[in-house]
């Protein structure tokens, strides 16, 4: 399978073919997403919440992102992988930003990076693009700024806010971003931005008219996600329950000495010492 690339993505928008994106954070999640034919994987800094147990994305470091991106790359060798630039790694010097991008690409094996923000980071986006790196924008609710925004709430509700989002989206397109994530944006505002841009919009809680959709792995699979039920998430499987029940059964069987059973043991009379595939 040929991985998607940013040229094909633009063509998908032109042809009205929706782009599917899901987060993944390690080898198994990436492998399963690739086997399910996802178009694009995001190694999101949402890993702070769903994998590392923090209550926001702010504590996530560049080392965390590199480590997880590298694991994802090993699990999904044929899928386009975007890695998040974490909190405060792209607001200082251009050199510092580029150094972070270099690590995510060279050590993490990402194909592209994502940065939160609009017009105010357009110059940084331009410099990264000039270095040959595809950049995914991210506007609307930007979780790294949650303490400034004052909570996780829907963006673009009033005219001024919608106009600001439109300006930010256009600034990112003009700076060379290959697509823009719209997070928690009203359906009307997201539709207008999608119409106005030649690059794809990827929505999360941004309605039906974006060029693609992205959701968080642990959310759609009910995998011990720390969040309350969110309106914009749909549950496609409940692996949390399956995992808990499986472990509980294992615990019971150990306590009852029902496991291991005869088929799981080795004896001196057996001809081979091979324990099976590693
Ligand atoms: O970190 C993440 O998972 C994200 C998506 C919610 C877009 O940035
Ligand atoms: Na993120």
UniProtKB/TrEMBL annotation:
Cofactor annotation comment: Binds 1 Mg(2+) ion per subunit.
Pfam families named among the record's database cross-references: Pantoate_transf
Location in or out of the cell: Cytoplasm
Reported cofactor(s): Mg(2+)
Residue positions binding Mg(2+): 45, 84, 116
Keyword tRNA processing in annotation: no
Keywords, comma-separated and alphabetical: Cytoplasm, Magnesium, Metal-binding, Pantothenate biosynthesis, Transferase
Transmembrane segments: none
Active site feature: 183
Catalyzed reactions per annotation: (6R)-5,10-methylene-5,6,7,8-tetrahydrofolate + 3-methyl-2-oxobutanoate + H2O = 2-dehydropantoate + (6S)-5,6,7,8-tetrahydrofolate
Binding-site residues, 3-methyl-2-oxobutanoate: 45-46, 84, 114
Record family assignment: Belongs to the PanB family.
Protein name stated in the entry: 3-methyl-2-oxobutanoate hydroxymethyltransferase
Organism: Paenibacillus campinasensis
Gene name linked to the record: panB
């Amino acid at each position: 399978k040929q991985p998607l690339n940013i040229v094909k993505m633009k063509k998908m928008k032109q042809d009205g073919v929706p782009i599917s994106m899901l987060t993944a954070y390690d080898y198994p999640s990436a492998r399963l997403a690739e086997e399910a034919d996802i178009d694009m994987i995001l190694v999101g800094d949402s890993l702070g919440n769903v994998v590392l147990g923090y209550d926001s994305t702010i504590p996530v470091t560049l080392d965390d992102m590199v480590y997880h991106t590298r694991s994802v790359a090993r699990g999904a060798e044929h899928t386009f992988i975007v890695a998040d630039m974490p909190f405060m790694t792209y607001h200082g010097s251009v050199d510092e930003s580029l150094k972070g991008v270099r690590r995510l690409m060279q050590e993490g094996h990402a194909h592209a990076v994502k940065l939160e923000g609009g017009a105010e980071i357009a110059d940084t986006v331009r410099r990264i693009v000039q270095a040959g790196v595809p950049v995914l924008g991210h506007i609307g609710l930007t979780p790294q700024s949650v303490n400034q925004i004052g909570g996780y709430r829907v963006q673009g509700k009033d005219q001024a806010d919608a106009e600001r989002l439109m300006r930010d989206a256009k600034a990112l397109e003009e700076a060379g971003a290959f697509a823009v994530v719209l997070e928690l944006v009203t359906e009307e505002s997201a539709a207008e931005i999608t119409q106005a841009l030649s690059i794809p919009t990827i929505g999360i809680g941004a309605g039906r008219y974006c060029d693609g959709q992205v959701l968080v792995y642990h959310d759609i699979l009910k995998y011990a996600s720390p969040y309350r039920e969110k309106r914009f998430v749909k549950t496609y499987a409940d692996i949390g329950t399956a995992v808990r029940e499986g472990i509980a059964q294992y615990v019971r069987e150990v306590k009852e000495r029902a496991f291991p059973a005869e088929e799981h043991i080795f004896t001196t009379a057996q001809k081979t010492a091979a324990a099976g595939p590693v």
